[in-house]
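User: Second chain of the day. Same drill as before.
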Amino acid sequence: MLPHGADWHRKYHRRRRDDHPGRKQPPHQPETRHRRHQHQLPHQPPHQPPQEALATALTHPAHQHWTGLHVRHDEGAEHLDLWLATIQSDLDFGKLSVGATARDLKLADPALRWSGAALYDGATFAYLTTRPVDDDTDELGITAHGPGADKLLTQANDLLHRWNQQRPTQPTITAYPAAAHDDHLEAGARITRPDTQLTITW
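Assistant: Same format as last time:
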């Protein structure tokens, strides 16, 4: 539990970039079986975020960065949080639940549009925030707390600019039987459930 009503929840776990399996060989080599380019998002994460370390993150001063990226209120950007959770990244994804007391004390003010979407690495986390540009548009920002705040701000900013290059609006989610072989699954993030495997691509 973070102080003053700010609560951290891990929503997804994914393999880090250096644990990622290689891409499948071209189709003209059918005799060799390889795993497709994918990373795992288990239905129940094998471990939880470092609660004790993250509980101290808000004792560090806030480091804020405004990205210069503008998002209209009527723009189809509601899946930005899912994109952050499922793309290849060296960061873990979670959500920060902030109560009224924490907001009143200005301890944290994550963007409501993405339900507290945040990225973390060890004892440092960064969450998405916004500020109005005009009546119809907000600018994306990032606020980080923790000993590695500057590094995490840079990494999160890079991810948001990567998202901005294409601004994908709708993921493709495909369901497969639980027993389906890796070679029959689409590339992308994967969620494994007892009776189903889901892949998420953009």
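The chain is about 15% helix and 35% strand.

User: Great, on to the next one.
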